[in-house]
């Protein structure tokens, strides 16, 4: 026999009723807490916005008094018919407005007529009054009396704030000082902030219940209350002053209301949490509208959570009613869980063994890779040693050439019985031999990458030594040699290694000048900041783009067979790099020779150079 169907319905109600109650309570609690937090945050920001508006206008509150105290302004008010004083006062107002950042400053005569006369103005039109203030605004000044107020700008629809002060002397009214401040930048900041961060929507409402500032342009110059606005007030230009369609739904807490108002596009109704703050000095109210949609979304989530909690309570009650059956199910589930645990433990053990095996394999591969890296490093060292052995013959070739020139000169001096010059050449031959030994030692040290001792070196001395070593070539191959190196300019480096670089660059330049009609070699040095820039320039035929791109490749040379190994620039570049600089060749221009330049650290203890070098022929 089948059981009655009402038992199934009763069990369903036991779950659904707590779920509905929990969802309702969760929604109400979350919504109340969220709206309270939203009101708190909005209130803090509202105070900040109000302070910003007050401080923005407070910067100009002193300006009417300052202008009224100017002697030229007072003299104009005493003699308003003097055109020269009007022009002088207008020019002064232009300067004051520019310094203060005001949109305009006007001086009005104390005229009881329908429209006050503009005596002087910082705006275009000057004392003539054109483009100074709209006539309706001038009439509003006269009718409403001397007080500060918001008004619309007829030209672009933005909002201005007017500071108005009556000028009196000995109880006599002389006129009025009007300072206009445009609030468009502040309003644009509010609009941009609302677009980028979806923050509060702001409205500034004046004493006539007209929205004079708003972060939503569609709400500007609309009315918010029943107070009528006179059509001839002149303060709102051609604005329609249509009512802003909103309705108070409820008061959430003191000072916090929930409003229903039309969206800016007018197609839908939105709910907004409204808070306002009265700005007493301005006679206006600042209203902040916050979107509660996020609060409502979280409240819906809380409702689902509450419903889930209520359903859980119903299930717990159902569990109590069916405890015996549940206990049997629990025991079965425990057995199944134990079985799954055992299976998982076996899988973990198997996975651990696999990871251990993979780790051991990875360790073995790392050891093999380290061994291979060591072998590659050793092979690299052998390759560098081979390159250095080829470079020794190239670097010794230049001192040998100098020795041949010095020995030939010594023989000529000996035949001419010029013993002093012979002794000098022999000493230089001894120095060249010693330099050859140092070159070999330096190249060995370079191959072992040993450090160099950096000490101040007189650059001009290194150039003179190189010119002396190249003397025989300069005599065999007449060249216009121009050396512009200050005598007191010092660099940090090693004298002999620096001579190697200069000897290689100048020797290459002399090679390039063979067969050229105009043979000119220039060596130039100058101080640039904390660096010394050295240039070696020749008037040879230059290089092609392809040759220039390969200049610093080992064993690349443009010379004939037996004239070069292609290692000079490579070695020179490494020497300059060890000094803390860089050697480079400027991009060649066909037919205009080559320019090599390198920079070295300046020896700061030396005197900053100021005199040019000398011309050697």
TrEMBL record:
Native organism: Ideonella livida
Top-level EC class as recorded in UniProt: transferase
E.C. designation(s): 2.7.13.3
UniProt-annotated location(s): Cell inner membrane
Catalytic reactions of this protein: ATP + protein L-histidine = ADP + protein N-phospho-L-histidine
A Pfam family: HATPase_c
Name of the protein described by the UniProt record: C4-dicarboxylate transport sensor protein DctB
Main location as per UniProt: membrane
Alphabetized SMART domains for the sequence: HATPase_c (SM00387), HisKA (SM00388)
